[in-house]
Exopolygalacturonase
Amino acid sequence: MAAKCYINIVSSLLLFLSILVHVNGDRLHPRSFDVIKYGAVGNGRTDSTRAFLRAWEDACAYNGRSRVRVPQGTFLLGSVSFEGPCHGSMTFLIKGTLRAPTDPSKFFTDTWIGFRYLSNLTVKGGGYLDGQGAAAWRYNDCNKNPGCKPLPATLRFDFVRNSKVQYLRSINSKNSHINIFACYNMDISYIRLSAPANSPNTDGIRIGSSSRIKISRAVISTGDDCISMVSGSQNIDISDVSCGPGHGISVGSLGRSHQHEYVTGISVRNCTFIGSDNGVRIKTWAPSLYSLASNITFEDIAMISVHNPIVIDQQYCPLAQCLEGDSAVQIENVIFNNIWGVSSTQVAVKIQCSGALPCKNIKIININLAYKGRGGRAKALCSHVLGSSYGKQIPAGCL
């Protein structure tokens, strides 16, 4: 009798466990939504935009973990926005190549591939995003044409939280490769972004109005900033990034708009710059609206033939005609620590702060930047800056 009761109890437990596994199986294994099954064609010519959207809509509506899968092949994809909120965590798995349109009637927009209003999103897969930027760069004339039309960022994340971007390659973006706006707690790693050095405004990663963004183990070669952090960027951690060609890793430009969205809590470390126009840089417009950039650290940085390794520029204006006046952006609590290598211009350290609001508490620690060209040794130039220097100072410190 006892043995029979024991067998019944065990059988009931096994039945209960099988039901539990069946009910919760989707939590263990995400359901896959393959774009091919929705009509996508990987021949590089057939527009697969609608198929991608249908796959996303079904995956987003699924009550559990889901995955949109892009297999091997080349998929022509128009401007598209994948939006939430979704019923479960989402993975967008790219194994193949996504190719952007070259018809101007299809690319005058600010987004090629967008993700909006999402949480717990992962975009990964080892695939390629081909922006086909050469078809659009000639239209990038906003510096001289106030009526210029927008060009799309390859990947745009708006209002995305607790998400990851990993193991992707983006080539020849029409505008920025990755644009991050109003996002929180994102981890971007193991990516490679590339565009020719003369391609206009092809920033690698552009961050604004976002916090707790981590970027690591990235190789970025572009025609603009490898990474730029504009108004509202807070608690940004950047490490193990190779930059070049490009315009360096920049805070700013600041002060032209969004005056109350300050930049603070920036860490850039263990990075290498190779042949870039700038290394580590803070830039603000002059004249400008009031703003603040504070608590910024650049440390353990290698410079290999970099034009301007260390820069604070509070007279920034890339336009053909610039107004006179001082910047009203306060820069304070900035550390440049353990930066070494070779400058390809004689002025290796250039800190030009605002006459109206001098930089405060700038620390230059253990700098060793050589210059091997004509005109003598490397130089450091500073103006309107309050701070101090410690340790080795090559070129001789101006603080």
